[in-house]
Amino acid sequence: MSKAYIPQNTWVVCTFQQNTGPQKLIATKYERQQFSVLYKGDKDLIFLTIGDRNTKEKFICKKPMNMWMAIGGLVVGLILASNPIGWVVAGVCAAVLIASAAIAIITHDCTGPLKSGKWINEKSNVTFDKQIAITEASMLTCDSGGILQPIISYDVAVQTAKAIAFENMKETAVTTVAAIATGFFMGKGGGFLKAMKGVFTKSGFLFTVGGMGATYAMTLYQSKVMRGNEAYANNDIYQRMNKADEKDFTDPNTVAKETGETTKNTVLSGAPPSVKDLANVVQLYKTGKIIIEDKALKAQFDQLSKMNKVQLRNSPRARALIKSIQQKRPDVFNEIKRSPNSKPIRLRPQMRDNAISHLDDQIKKNRWSPSNENSLLTKGASVALFFVPLISGYFSENARRKLAENAVKDDTSSISVRAES
């Protein structure tokens, strides 16, 4: 099937964009010495080549947005940890996040990363002004990680840009909320410096490196699984994107770049992942199971709280309960006995009240309980935050899929100059 060559001002979308509209590709003067091959003789419609790697206006890129919103979110979390929420605090927090977003938009420039990018799927046997030509099937990889896809139809370009932007906004929202949570728990746990001090101990450093490796492995596997979805097996655009994003880990430069990116993301998150967080999963499960059992058992005793001695003696439910705790909960049974050697077979009011008091104490002491000063809340949060990159990765991959789903609808009939593929 033939593919149209693309002139300057062709619409383009980016998998990293957060603005809801497309931009225009332009000829790049610093890469080309002449611009003589024109579409229909229009000097503004120069046919583009692999040397043309820029847009007329910059995109709002999710990469700096995620970075600055993570920094802003961390600050907001620390503020919330040290101050009760109120209109003034809420206003300060909102101002921090708005300022972070503004910095991300103002300071970002597409030109540098695009200049370091590369066109793929170019028309290698055709040149315009001594430069290899590109077509509607070509893609531009950005050094920041995004992929740019030319789209000739304006309506399709707008539809695609909106779909991509909304997925990337969701990713930034997840990143921001996670950063706020990180800052909050840091504030409650002694602050940022204390958290960093723990990282730079010998064991802390090893646990962090292990956590970074585990996080990277998880996201890499997630990406592989999502990109192997059979529903997109016949989508040429999606498969071209996958090919463009393939990483050659036999190349030292790739390894160095990926390591640098992972380290930078870890530092910016403010909460380096640690393999200790994964070890906490077992502890969280066991402790959570105990508090559930204690609450359920206390509820059974509470149901008997209004019974007197005679009613308890004649109650089948009371007799079954004393037998059950004797067999399954000896810790409770031993607490409510009148003496170490006694083996009561009937539940008495004093024993019932002792059981309720004992279980209530156990529930308060349980590390899942908010009333416990050493609550597992922070550990539970650290486990949840460990998996935030998977949620972000889901939305990131969805952005690529939205491009693939929408760009295949492109109407290229308006460009009559075509190449046989």
Low-confidence stretches: none
So how many helices? Answer: 15
Number of domains: 2
Termini gap: 6 Å
Mean pLDDT: 85
- Major sheet characteristics: 5 strands, antiparallel
- Rg over CA atoms: 31 Å
Helix percent band: 55-70%
Task: Give the H and E element order.
Answer: EEEEEHHHEEEEEHHHHHHHHHHHHE
How many strand elements? 11
- Give the structural class: alpha+beta
- Into which percentage range does the β-strand content fall? 5-15%
Please explain how this structure is put together.
This protein is an alpha+beta fold. The protein has two domains: 3-272 and 381-405, no CATH class; 275-365, no CATH class. The longest helix has 35 residues, at 154-188. A hairpin with a 5-residue loop joins β9 and β10. It has helices at residues 62-82, 87-107, 111-115, 154-188, 192-199, 202-227, 236-244, 252-269, 275-302, 309-314, 316-328, 330-336, 349-365, 377-386, 388-407; strands at 3-4, 11-14, 23-24, 38-39, 42-46, 118-120, 123-128, 131-133, 139-141, 147-151, 418-419. The strands form four sheets. The chain has a five-stranded antiparallel β-sheet with strand order 3-2-10-9-6, with helices on one face. A two-stranded antiparallel sheet has the order 1-11. The protein has a two-stranded antiparallel sheet with strand order 4-5. It is built from 15 helices and eleven strands. 58% of the residues lie in helices and 9% in strands. The mean pLDDT is 85. This is DUF4280 domain-containing protein. The chain crosses the membrane at residues 65-81, 87-106, 199-221. Keywords: Membrane, Transmembrane, Transmembrane helix.
